[in-house]
Amino acid sequence: MELGPRYITLKQANAGPTKIGLAHRENWVAYHNGASLFLKTIEFLDGATYPDMGCNFETFTNEEMLEVEALGPLVELAPGASTMHTEQWHLFEGVGQPPLPRRRRSPPGSCRGCSAPASAFRW
After folding, report:
1. What pTM value is reported for the model?
2. How far apart are CA 122 and CA 60, in angstroms?
3. What span, in angstroms and rounded, lies between the C-alpha atoms of 39 and 118?
4. Of 22-31, 55-64, 66-75, 110-119, the least confident
5. Taking the domains of the chain in order of start, what are their residue ranges?
6. Where are the beta strands (DSSP E) in 1-123?
7. Which of 57, 64, 68, 111 is deepest in the core (most CB within 10 A)?
8. What's phi and psi for 91, nearest 5 deg?
C-alpha cells in the first residue's frame, strides 16, 4: 500500500490480507489491471451515517482477489419499505500503467459522469 498526496494505491500481493475503509468524498475509485481500467462512481452523502465507523468505501485484497466495495448509508426501514444504493461501473481498455502515486494526475473532470474515453486516462 502506498499513501500518496492525492491517492492511496493498494496492490494485490502475497503480503497477506489488507483492508482499507474510508469516508470517500471524491466520487470515484479505480482498479487498474494490465491495459484495463475499471472505474466505479460512488456517492458520499454529507450528514448520513455509514457503517464501519463512517465508511462509504472499502477495499480488500489477499493473494486471490482485490475487492472494490461501495457502502450506502445506514437507514431504518419500516416493514415493506425499501432503499436504494447506486453505483456506476465503467470499463476502459487500452489504458497505460499509471505512474507512482506522487506523480499521478486526477482523471479528467468529465470522469465524474464517466463519459471519458480510455484515451483520457493518460496519467
Report:
1. 0.72
2. 26
3. 11
4. 110-119
5. 2-73+85-103
6. 2-3, 8-9, 18-22, 28-33, 36-41, 57-61, 66-70, 88-93
7. 57
8. -120, 125
